[in-house]
Write a structure and sequence with these properties.
Layout (H helix, E strand, L loop, with lengths): L11 E9 L4 H16 L3 E10 L4 E8 L2 H12 L2 H11 L3 E11 L14 E9 L4 H18 L3 E10 L4 E8 L2 H12 L2 H10 L3 E11 L7
Antiparallel strand pairs: 1-3, 1-4, 2-3, 2-8, 4-6, 5-7, 5-8, 6-7
């Protein structure tokens, strides 16, 4: 099925999620904060978070690559990094119950943003759209996102659509000053006729949606 205009930018993002054993979450996060610098020496980390609401005992991290050859070279180097393998991976793997990764591109009309200030919380919203790709639902989805941005209550960080993983999936990363700030803004948005109209048009193409509140680790570039 057509997925829209040709992807001309080779840059992509690998979205990794790990389910951590419930009794080992604190230990895993402490190890990540302590040793992640060995991994970031090889490629760019966008952000590293743990789930607070909407999921439990889950971490999510996003890595940026120039192209697939770049990722291959990075992983070869990581596999041979004795500090990373010996100090983190050998100890962390027994703490992990399940791993999952996706490859995604930023949608053409979105650039990766940053929060207005350090602190606050992130919201990771996953939309499963109807088959057909951005050629089918792209414009309506963009209008719904812009309608939320225009209310001013939230800040958009990035919109990613999958290339490997479950297709026709869109992940949207938002930033808010606090969970309460986000809740108040959402209530206001639901009363905004512009948002309501845009969302009603977009949901024609929606299969499901999941929201997760994320807290950044100290080692995360996005804080």
């Amino acid at each position: 099925l057509a997925t829209g205009p040709r992807q001309t930018n080779g840059i992509f993002y690998e979205i990794c999620t790990h389910d951590i054993k419930p009794a080992k979450m604190k230990e895993f996060l402490e190890m990540a904060n302590k040793y992640l610098h060995f991994r970031t020496a090889h490629s760019e980390l966008v952000g590293f978070w743990y789930a607070e609401l909407g999921a439990l005992n889950k971490v999510l991290h996003i890595w940026k690559y120039d192209n697939f050859a770049h990722r291959t070279a990075v992983w070869r180097a990581v596999a041979n990094d004795k500090d990373w393998q010996g100090k983190f991976m050998s100890a962390a793997l027994p703490l992990i119950e399940k791993q999952h990764n996706e490859v995604a591109y930023l949608v053409p009309w979105c650039q990766l943003g940053k929060p207005s200030k350090e602190g606050g919380v992130y919201e990771w919203v996953t939309f499963q759209m109807k088959p057909g790709g951005p050629a089918l639902w792209g414009e309506a989805f963009r209008a719904a996102i812009n309608a939320h941005i225009n209310t001013g209550y939230t800040k958009l960080i990035g919109v990613f659509h999958t290339e490997y993983g479950l297709l026709n999936t869109v992940h949207v990363l938002w930033w808010n000053e606090s969970p309460d700030h986000r809740a108040a803004g959402r209530h206001s948005a639901h009363e905004d006729a512009r948002v309501v109209a845009a969302v009603r048009d977009s949901v024609r193409f929606l299969e499901s949606q999941q929201n997760v509140l994320l807290i950044p680790l100290q080692c995360s570039p996005l804080k």
